[in-house]
Amino acid sequence: xxxxxxxxxxxxxxxxxxxxxxxxxxxxxxxxxxxxxxxxxxxxxxxxxxxxxxxxxxxxxxxxxxxxxxxxxxxxxxxxxxxxxxxxxxxxxxxxxxxxxxxxxxxxxxxxxxxxxxxxxxxxxxxxxxxxxxxxxxxxxxxxxxxxxxxxxxxxxxxxxxxxxxxxxxxxxxxxxxxxxxxxxxxxxxxxxxxxxxxxxx
Length: 202
Ligand code: URA
Prior knowledge:
The chain has helices spanning 11-19, 26-29, 53-58, 65-75, 102-119, 129-135, 142-145, 164-169, 178-201, and strands spanning 37-38, 44-48, 85-88, 123-127, 150-152, 156-161. By secondary structure, it is of the alpha/beta class. Bound molecules: uracil.
């Protein structure tokens, strides 16, 4: 699928295609496809790895424990979840929450590419190493790349952050901890968004 060359494709006409996908074996074990949700005209697109158990049960991205952590991170800088778009590299849950395989990501990524082409975000926030390395293979590992704005395909910026699940496994708030750094990182997103909106509104 090449969304940019497909006239008339919209998020709403893309959705049923993704929901009925049987292109990879993950469709055999899923309960629901997790297409993604949020503002179709969002300035910021968040990209995680793949749905977890609660996401698989509900068909919604980041609504389980990692999602609650993401909501907290967003709320800390007054970013409404509904004002961004949230999706994943793979739209079906890898069994046992394993990392999606390269073939699974390859087969599924045209859907993400179509979402990017349709939403046209100005900033893509990748959550964790998997989505960061998938979209920006040359990026250093997440402990180095988080909190850095990378130029990505022309005018889009890509900004890696720690995956919220990693924060759940590392609850310390001490200075320099992943949680502390994430609070710093999201404040940089807030600042970028304020500056971007000021220019867009001018
Ligand atoms: N982890 C992810 O990467 N994505 C989700 O939607 C939920 C948990």
